[in-house]
Target: 1-acyl-sn-glycerol-3-phosphate acyltransferase
Amino acid sequence: MTTPRKQDAWHWRLVATGMAFTLFGLGGLFLRGVVFPLQQAWPTDVSTRKRRARRTIHQSFRWFVRFMVYTGILRIEVINGERLGGPGQMIIANHPSLLDVVFLIAQLDNANCIVRHGLATNGFTRGAVHNAGYVTNDESFDMFDRAAQSLRDGETLIVFPEGTRTPPGNLPRFHRGACAIALRGARSIVPVVIHMSPRSLGKGDPWYRIPYRRMHYRIVVGDALDPAQWASRHSPPIAGRRMNDYLHHYFQQELTNEATGTRDQGIDYRNT
Model:
């Protein structure tokens, strides 16, 4: 098999990628050690402190994404981004790479998110997870209760139902836990299909294993779905299974259409 020729200033992208990971780590430490303690010192209620922390993370991620775009690490398009955000909205997305949650939070200034439990103990990310009040996925019943309650409280919740990054060459396979949470608290479900080419930053990939050409992300936001269309016709276990089957088919079809060249035209991130 022939190795693809390195393109798009490969050596510069390698340097820029190292700079980006360094920036992300130092930024996480700065937020944890300086910004969040100052925010916590300001007398206010818990809900306001969480919103303030989430807005800070949102702005930090927006700048981080712009850094990656302008240094040539990646390109990104967001299609129908205005559909994101709203009381009790659950955002369900596939998970091809490490950066998916960064892109989505960069679009939303007050979103909750179900994150991997290890991020709550990681020195670079635990400050953000704790201060923003993100739901950690420890696979307990309490996690489901906290996620559903956040939706009932009117928060926007980001969920990756795969539970881990999609293996290269595979289509996503969703666990039914996200649908169980949606049936218990969501007012609407918005599917977000993340297309990525070439694939990189998968599970276990080191940061320096960059692809032969610049990464291109297309984030396509679908129409909102009403959980009642399943909940009103079926018992909770069956409703969850039917909803999961629908979403699984939807994502597989959208990702297959992308692979065959049948897709919508998007807007470049620089102009959004």
Summary: Helices lie at 10-41, 46-70, 100-107, 126-132, 141-152, 177-185, 228-231, 236-259. The mean pLDDT is 91.
